Amino acid sequence: MTGKRLGVGIVGGGFVGRFHIRSWVGVRGADILGVVSRTRRSADGAAALARQLGVGEAKAYASITEMVADPAIDALWICAPNFTRIPVMEEIARAVQSGKGKLVGVACEKPLGRTAAEAHRVRTLAQDAGLLDGYLENQVFSPAVTRGRDILWSRGAALTGPPYLARAAEEHSGPHEPWFWDGELQGGGVLNDMMCHSVEVARYLLTPPGAPRETLTPVRVAAHTSCLKWRQPRYADQLKAASGGKTDYRKRPSEDFARALVEYRDADGNERIVEATTSWCFVGAGLRLSMEVLGPEYSMAVNTLDAGPKVFFSRQVTGESGEDLVEKQNAEMGLMPVVSDEEAEYGYVAENRHMVQAFLTGRRPAENFDDGVAVTELLMAAYLSAEQGKTIAFPPDGLAAYVPAVARGTWQPRP
Ligand SMILES: NC(=O)c1ccc[n+]([C@@H]2O[C@H](COP(=O)([O-])OP(=O)(O)OC[C@H]3O[C@@H](n4cnc5c(N)ncnc54)[C@H](OP(=O)(O)O)[C@@H]3O)[C@@H](O)[C@H]2O)c1
């Protein structure tokens, strides 16, 4: 595609689709030219946002097939809910393979699938259709992570030895749409929703820059899940009301807390540890991403709520609630942290620049569907460990066919 700009179509005009569109102000060589969504209204809204930001003359399409058929569209970003992955990817593959249109690549939000089987299927569909594939894990593109990792490895690790422990956490007070709370639709609870980020960013921090993913081999996974807040009657009632009666955490909870320890071996057989924890029951200023790396003579720490300016509002400032200071904001009063440029700081800008450059030059992105499959397999092993209450040797037998109890609607926290 030398000399050409990449025409991008977004599938799913909701929360994260709009995050990607906003990030495009920092992306070169590509324009957002289309949006498909479940309803015309959200497709029109997201397309209007792209035009308003000047990141592309986007228009709404009636279907994925129609968007693929437009010669202006070269690549798709899949930003639709988890339960639509397979039908969305099947329609893309069908449209390309039947010659309705041409695409260079497809980039897909996390998770690649709700189970290992789904993630494998998504990768196979993309490969059989001859598409380049990008796995949209924004945290491995976050400037704090990439810059911190470069410095640790080039100074501390080069002189005193590689890091041996990475911790990562993603926490907020709960998702914004009812489908996330439904174990079957989403594929699980907070473990599936957010630990995908934490296990991947921690693995990335422990992997030498430039080395392939296989440099670290997972050997054991131990996890614990619970529902600490949202099945309490008061909060279960809130969820029920917000979902029009569909979500009932008194009867069918999903986990709102999860921790996992993934034990790796490096190329020389040394132990490397990833410690990941996630919750939907953290009440602080808003979304908090934290990471730590420990090596023999050095360490690194990131906390997204500590990085930017802070503002203070007295109790006289009683405006409307919003998310203008930080994603998943919980309050508007007192001393409040501000994440000044969320699209850049969480990694969306660098992620999309990378994906665009890879697609324009015909290269497979560095973060691709192999990574999406690997992350899903680790999460499934974590669910298995939490269900069985024991450490799981990785990969466990039957991983491909395993569906977590929470995704089957049968999970209950241990008494
Ligand atoms: N990287 C991250 O940190 C991050 C953050 C959030 C979400 N995500 C991931 O991104 C995906 C979307 O999440 P979200 O928060 O954006 O959810 P959301 O706010 O519910 O938005 C999903 C959008 O997809 C549309 N949609 C539903 N079914 C569709 C279909 N079959 N084809 C095309 N569009 C369809 C919906 O349309 P209507 O509006 O018309 O109903 C909605 O606009 C999920 O897989 C999620 O895990 C990633």
Specify the CATH homologous superfamily of the largest domain. Answer: Dihydrodipicolinate Reductase, domain 2
- Ligand types: NADP nicotinamide-adenine-dinucleotide phosphate
Q: If you average the pLDDT, what whole number results?
A: 96
Shape: globular
Helical run tally: 14
CATH hierarchy: architecture of the largest domain: 2-Layer Sandwich
Helix amount: 25-40%
List the secondary-structure elements in sequence, H or E: EHEHEHEHEHEHEHHHEHEEEEEEHHHEH
Strand-residue proportion:
15-25%
The CATH class designation of the largest domain is Alpha Beta
Alpha-beta classification: alpha/beta
Can you count the beta strands?
15
Rg calculated over all Cα atoms: 21 Å
CATH fold assignment of the largest domain = Dihydrodipicolinate Reductase, domain 2
- Unreliable segments of 5+ consecutive residues: none
